C-alpha cells in the first residue's frame, strides 16, 4: 500500500531543478523515474513498490541540497542506487520474518476451545432436559420458545392454560431453570475432569 510522501515543497522544487532546468521537462523526467522505480520494485517482488518509490524520493529530498552542488552525472543513476539499497533492505526484512506456512499450532486456538465448550454445554443441556419430568420439560421449552412481543403474548396464554398468573409462572420456570443450570454445570465439570 502506497504511503504519503513527506517531501517538503521546497525540496520537491529542488529535485525538479536538479533533474532539469526546464521545469516542464523536469516534471516529465520525475514522472518517468517514478514509474521506472515502481517497475523496478515490482520486478524485484517488493511488498510495497509504490511506498518504496516514495521512500526513494524522500531519501533524495534529504540530500538534494548537497547533491545539487556536488553531484555530477545522470540523476536517474543516483535514484537507481537508492532503489538498489532499498531492495537490499527489503530482502533483509523478508529474511528476518518467519514463514507461517509450515507452522503447526501447539495448542488449540481460542475459537476451537470456545466451540468445544459450547458443544459440551449443548450436550449437557440436552442430557439434563431428558432428566426433567415431561411436564417440567414441556413447560420450560414452551416458556423460552418465542421472542419479543410474541414471547410476552405466549407467556400470558401459557399462564392462563395453567390456571395461574404470569408472576407465578415466572417463579415456577425460574426454579426449573435453576435446577437445570445446576445440572448442566455438574455435567460440564464431569466432562472436563475426564479430559
Secondary-structure map:
Layout: H1 9-19, H2 23-43, H3 49-70, H4 75-96, H5 110-131, H6 134-143, H7 148-161, H8 166-194
Number of helices: 8
What is the first-to-last residue Cα distance? 47 Å
The SSE order reads HHHHHHHH
**Total domains, how many?**
2
List how many beta strands DSSP finds.
0
Q: Which secondary-structure class do the elements indicate?
A: mainly alpha
Major sheet: size, sense and barrel closure?
none
Our estimate of the beta-strand percent is: under 5%
Mean pLDDT: 85
Low-confidence parts, pLDDT < 50 over ≥5 residues? Answer: none
Q: Please, could you describe this protein's structure?
A:
This protein has 195 residues and is mostly helical. It has two domains: 9-96; 110-194, Arc Repressor Mutant, subunit A. It contains eight helices and no strands. The radius of gyration is 36 Å and the shape is elongated. The mean pLDDT is 85.
List keywords for this structure.
Arc Repressor Mutant, subunit A; elongated; 8 helices; mainly alpha; 77% helix
Short description:
The chain is an all-alpha fold and 195 residues long. The protein has helices at residues 9-19, 23-43, 49-70, 75-96, 110-131, 134-143, 148-161, 166-194.
